Amino acid sequence: MTRAVITECNNIQYLLIYEENVLAECHPFVSGDSFQIGNIYIGRVEKVVKNIQSAFIRLDEKHVGYLPLNDKPARVLNRTLPKGLPSIAEGDKVLVQVEQEALKMKQARVTGNISLAGNYVAFDLLTGMVGVSNKIRNTDRVEELKAMVPADMPYGVIFRTACEQAENDAVQTELQQLSTQMDQIMHKAEYERNTGLIQGGKPEYLVIMEEYGWTRIDEIQTDNKMIYEELSTRIKPDNLVISKKVLSDHNDTNDKKAEAAEPQLIFYEDEYPLYKLLNLESEISHLLDKRVWLKSGGFLVIEPTEAMVVIDVNTGKSIGKKRQEEHLLKVNEEAAVEIAKQLRLRNLSGIILVDFINMKQPENRDRLIHTLKAALRKDKVPSRFVDVTALELYEITRKKTRKPLYECIGWK
C-alpha cells in the first residue's frame, strides 16, 4: 500500500510518501510560493553568454532564469527571426517555462519547450511528436492511444503510464482539455505586451504526486483544510473521508483502489497533531544525520559537498569471522539498497561517489553492481550507475530537479 501524507512540522509543509508504511520520500515545500516549477513566463533576454551556451532571462522583478541554448529554442515574441539565425539575442521577449528550481549559486533553469501534464497525457511544443510510456508493453494499446491524436495536432503528445488501464473517454477528455489550455497559453503569449508570469504551475504537492504516479497512490491524508478542499475537487466524492486517525493498510482500500483507479482522500482532524503521530520530527532528524546505521551493524557516512556527494560504507559492528568475503558482500549489498533509499529520501543528486568495502573476487563486485542498479531503478528521478573508478569508487548520477532536503531545512 502507498500513502501520501501532507502535513506541517516546525512551520514547514511536507509531502511524505509511505510505501508499505515505510517512509520512502520526503518533500518540503513552501505553501503558496508564487515561483515554482511549471510556471510559464514571458521573459526578457538580459544576456547571452556563448562560452557556456546559455542565455539569462529576466522573468519578473525578483527572478532570473538561465536558458541552455542547445535546448529547443525559445519562442521569440517581439520579432520574426531571420532564416538561419542560430539563436535569440539580448532584448528579445521569449516564452519560457521553469523546469528546475534554483540550486545553490545557480539560477532557476528554464526551457523554451512549454509543456503541460495531466494524469494521462503530457503536451509540449515538439510538433508531430507522439510518444507512449515505455512501461506500456501492450502494442495494441499503444496503437490505440496513438490513434487518439488528430493528424493536425500542432503539439507534441506523450501518453503516460496511467493510460494503460484508463478508460478511453477519460484519456480523450484530458487530451482535449490540455490542447485547449495550450492554445490559450500560446494565444495569450502572442498578444501580451508585458513580461512576467502568464500561467502559474500546479501546486508543488500535486506536481510531485503526478511525477510519482497518481494511480500508484492508494491514500492521500492531510490535516490542512485548504489542501484537502483543493484535492477534493479532483477526486470522486465516494473517495472522500473524514478521519481522526491514520488509516492502516486494509483490503477494503485495495478493493476500492482497484475499482476507482484513484486514491482515497482522508482529512485528519484529531487534536493530536498528525506530525507527532507520524513521529516526523525524529524521521527528519535522522535524514539530516550524516551517519546511517544498517541492520547488519555496518553504517554509511553521507557527506554532501559543493561538487558531489560522497558516501563511505563501513563494517562498523558487523564482524564476520568465517567466510569473510561473503560477509563483506552481504554488508555491501545491504548498503547499496540503503544508499538508493537515502538518495530518494534526502533528494541528493548530481555526481555521487560511493566507497564500498573492498572485495577480492571480481564476481562479487559484479553482483554488487547488479544489486545497486536494481535498487536505483525504483527511483522515479533518473538515476544510474556509471562505472567503477581505478580507486574502486562506484560512480552514480542522479538528475537534479529540486533542492536537497538539507538545503531546504538545514543540518541538525
Description:
The chain has 412 residues and is of the alpha+beta class. The chain folds into 3 domains: 2-28 and 218-280, no CATH class; 33-202, Nucleic acid-binding proteins (OB fold (Dihydrolipoamide Acetyltransferase, E2P)), CATH 2.40.50.140; 289-409, Aminopeptidase (3-Layer(aba) Sandwich), CATH 3.40.630. Helix content is 28%, strand content 29%. It has helices at residues 139-146, 168-191, 204-212, 225-232, 251-260, 274-277, 280-287, 324-346, 362-376, 405-409, and strands at 2-9, 12-19, 22-29, 40-49, 54-58, 64-68, 75-76, 93-100, 108-111, 116-117, 121-124, 130-132, 156-159, 196-199, 219-222, 240-243, 264-268, 291-293, 299-304, 309-314, 350-355, 383-388, 394-398. The chain has a 6-stranded mixed sheet with strand order 3-2-1-15-17-16, sandwiched between helices. Strands 18-19-20-21-23-22 form a 6-stranded mixed sheet, covered by helices on one side. Helix 8 runs parallel beside helix 9 (362-376). The longest helix is centred in the middle third of the chain and has 24 residues, at 168-191. The chain is globular and about 75 Å long. The two termini are 31 Å apart.
